Amino acid sequence: MLKPNIFIAAIVLLTATLFQSYGNAAELEIELTLPDLNVQPYHRPYVAVWLETPQRKHVTTIALWVEKAEWFKDLRQWWRKAGKSAANFDGATGATKRPGTYTINWNGADLDGKTVVAGKYLLNLEVVREEGGRDYTRVELDLNKDGKITIDGTNEFSQSFVTIKSQ
Amino acid sequence: MKINLLKSALIGALTFTALASSYANAHARWLVPSHTSLSGDKAHYVMIDASISNEIFAPDKAYRPSTEGAEYDDKLLMALTPGGEQVTDTIRAYYLKRKNSAAVKLEDQGTYHIAMTQKPMYMTFYKNAAGERSRVFAKKSDANLPKDASDITTMKMISTVDTFVSRNGTSKPALLGVGLEISGDTHPNDLFVGEQARFQLLSDGKPVGEGIEISILKGDTRYRNNRGEVKVTTDKNGYFSTTWQQPGLYLIETSKKVEVTEEGVDAGRYALFTTLEVAPE
Question: Would you tell me which CATH number, out of the four given (3.30.70, 2.40.33, 1.10.287, 2.60.40), belongs to the domain A25-165?
Answer without folding.
Answer: 2.60.40
